[in-house]
Amino acid sequence: MLAKLRAAGAHDVIVHGHDLAAAGEHLRTQLLPRDPHGVYVPPFDHPDIWAGNGSVVHEVAAQLAERGEGRAPPDAVVCSVGGGGLLNGVCGALDAVGWSGGCSVLAMETRGTDSLAKALEAGELVALEEIGSEARSLGARRVSEETFRLAREEWRNVRSVVLDDREAAMGCWRLADDERLMVELACGVNVALCYDGRLEKAVGKKLTKESKVVIVLCGGNDVTVEKLHQWRKEYGDVEKEIPRNADVPSESTAPGRR
């Protein structure tokens, strides 16, 4: 990851702490006061970040309209949650296109980064003591206040789902097998629901070949071919528990798209 940042033009890359909270605190209290031209760009907790993330929903709405499929909402949107910037953007965009309430939102976390699930269970914002998952991209110890507010509005149909790292890794290698796409654990957790009928259970209704489910493939920076092989070697036994009932239909393999 550091090499990728430098290759993209980063002048200096400073690594501090074990999670986003520690790094952010160091940036705000130690680095910015010494840099009069410094600008803090939050990783998830800002309306501009949410708006950018929400553009994916507007793209989906435009594509469905171009195909003559009307303005009916998808059955569900599946997105992962770290600090909540993606979820906030998705919910805001669903409001904008008139899909809120008619479209379930599955808020995916890995066990050990499940700050939203813990907050919903407690009925208040809580901070994890530490990040206990390999999905470091989801490593926010507490979700934003806006995320917690949105997830608690029952009419939005936001459903919190927590899977472990083994299942997230399985989602990564199965997506690579089925669609030749490489994603990191923070994204693989979204794909993992698509096997063994678990997506239907999470959405809470019958899904057919005509159903529309949007799976946000949100990250591919922290993955390599070597990591995929390692995950499969380390976690391969999970496939005995979660059999492959069907391939994940994509743009190229979905019914009527070939």
Automatic annotation (TrEMBL):
It comes from the Eukaryota. One of its GO terms (biological process) is isoleucine biosynthetic process. Residues 2-219 form the Tryptophan synthase beta chain-like PALP domain. It catalyses: L-serine = pyruvate + NH4(+). The keyword Lyase applies. One of its GO terms (molecular function) is threonine deaminase activity. InterPro entries: Ser/Thr_Dehydratase (IPR050147), TrpB-like_PALP (IPR001926), TrpB-like_PALP_sf (IPR036052). The keyword Hydrolase does not apply. It comes from Diplodia corticola. Keywords: Lyase, Pyridoxal phosphate. Its EC number is 4.3.1.17. It holds the Pfam family PALP. Belongs to the serine/threonine dehydratase family. This is L-serine ammonia-lyase. Its cofactor is pyridoxal 5'-phosphate. Signal peptide: none annotated.
